[in-house]
Amino acid sequence: MKKKLNLTGILLIAAFVVFLVLAGRGMPPRDLLITTLRGFSVGSVTFLVAAGFSLIFGLLDVLNLAQGTLYMIGAYVGWTVFVRPDTFVDVTPIILFLMAGFALNFLWDYLADKIKLDPQKKKILGWSMVVVAVALAAFILPRYPIAMWQLNNYAQSPISFSYMADQGIRLPVAPAQAKGIPPMLALYGGLAISALLAFGLALIRYKENRQHSLHWKKWQVFVILLLLGTLIMAFNTPLSNWLMDMNTNWLFIIAIVVSVLSVVGLGALMEKTMIQPLYSRPVYQLMLTLGLGTIGMQLVKAIWGMPEFVLPKPEFFRGAGAACPATSIKDIFTHNCSTIMILGGRVRVYDEIVLPIIGITVLILVWLLLKKTRIGMIIRAGVQDSNMVEALGINVRRVFTFVFALGAGLAALGGVLSAPSNGLSVAMGEKLLLNALIALAIGGLTSYPGAALGSLMVGLIQQFMIKYGQIGIPIPFTDIIFKPTPAIIPASTMLLMVIVLLILPNGLLGRQD
């Protein structure tokens, strides 16, 4: 049966390649190359979201419908670091202090075990703490000083800041001012909020007969978060000025790192506090992640507004002038040309060369992580028999949190990398999630290589349809030139998915259940 399925999958892939070859015969070599490279670019971004989704579902059996929102949040966080580094510096200390409370989960579990109350009363006490934490957050967080844009003032809106940053100009901004509470008091109020919330959740999910330790090494993350947050608060102004004057190439790298780490932390928090208690209730997981995705969209609207804007490209990809477009790789590095001439056509360096390279690199690195490292072995063993792995002294829950956070981080990487090309909008996550789900259905929902294959196929077919929408498709034996409309583009990927699923219900590389 397996051989038949493998042969069928090979034949389907071969048929797709033949289709692309026939489609390419109607294009000049220049257009064929550019269209193919754009397909690889779209496929690379789609793969980053699809790969995260596939890892989470394939290893944890969780359908994370918030993956598109995590992709969107990654893009907006990256934009904030790149365009408004002062806002990023202002908000970092309070985020670190909010994380610090959850870094003491071992302490809250220990105290929950020591409190002599029956489980029902512990849950009541836990929910009371959660309510107090939410009330405290509603009072303190709006009063924490953050220098931000103004959604109701176009001159100080994200659109204006994006445009001016694209021109190499930083708009003057007023420094953050205290809002009725001393900044340090508000900062430590954030620690109190997270401590109450984490302790309350520990009481709610309390289970007996668990081993708890207060070893000094477990306090290290908590201490580091507090020290880092305090130092950033103390050196706020010089740090903001340093980032604003930094070369945009380095600033873009920092934006990528911060974006990925932020969403990794958010993913870990989601899994630890909300997903983990629902591992045995898949329908509730589905509803929860769908709800979290909707909440995330509304938060983005409230903070960054609804209008679309772009994340400017770093200096390395903005070169123009007499020496550009580049005619060789050397010219790209010498003159920072944004485009390169290949077969007489202009190829965008960032969009059509850099993004596919990053996608291939991530594909290889994550595959090596899963197949060639100890953590990958633990992940695969934990999926097969978590009780056995726990018996070996390995914290399987922590490993699963790592997997969920890794999947979220891949989505954020896709978001921040695609922002200079596709722009930012509150709908960007929904569009990409749909593409990713189609790609996963084609390649195999639980297959990591299938995510790569399906994403590539989706990217290629979309770009070929877009190109034929411009040049038209001659209908044989007639004078009619058929031009696919924009509505046909998503329909073409849907059609491909339907064909594959009718023949191979588990996708091209999906495993048999």
Write the layout of secondary structure elements.
Blueprint: H1 2-24, H2 29-60, H3 67-83, H4 85-102, H5 105-114, H6 119-140, H7 158-166, H8 183-204, H9 220-234, H10 236-244, H11 248-275, H12 282-304, H13 329-335, E1 339-342, E2 345-348, H14 349-372, H15 374-384, H16 386-391, H17 396-422, H18 428-443, H19 448-471, E3 473-474, E4 481-482, H20 488-503
Antiparallel strand pairs: 1-2, 3-4
Helix pairs in contact: 1-19, 2-14, 2-17, 2-18, 2-19, 3-4, 3-11, 3-12, 3-17, 3-18, 4-8, 4-9, 4-10, 5-8, 6-8, 11-17, 14-15, 15-17, 18-19, 18-20, 19-20
Walk me through the structure.
With 513 residues, the chain is mainly alpha-helical. The chain has one domain (2-322, 326-503). It is 70% helix and 2% strand. The chain is built from 20 helices and four strands. The chain has helices at 2-24, 29-60, 67-83, 85-102, 105-114, 119-140, 158-166, 183-204, 220-234, 236-244, 248-275, 282-304, 329-335, 349-372, 374-384, 386-391, 396-422, 428-443, 448-471, 488-503, and strands at 339-342, 345-348, 473-474, 481-482. It has a two-stranded antiparallel ribbon with strand order 1-2. It has a two-stranded antiparallel sheet with strand order 3-4. Strand 3 and strand 4 (481-482) form a beta hairpin. Helix 4 (85-102) runs antiparallel to helix 9, helix 6 runs antiparallel to helix 8 (183-204) and helix 15 packs across helix 17. The radius of gyration is 25 Å and the shape is globular.
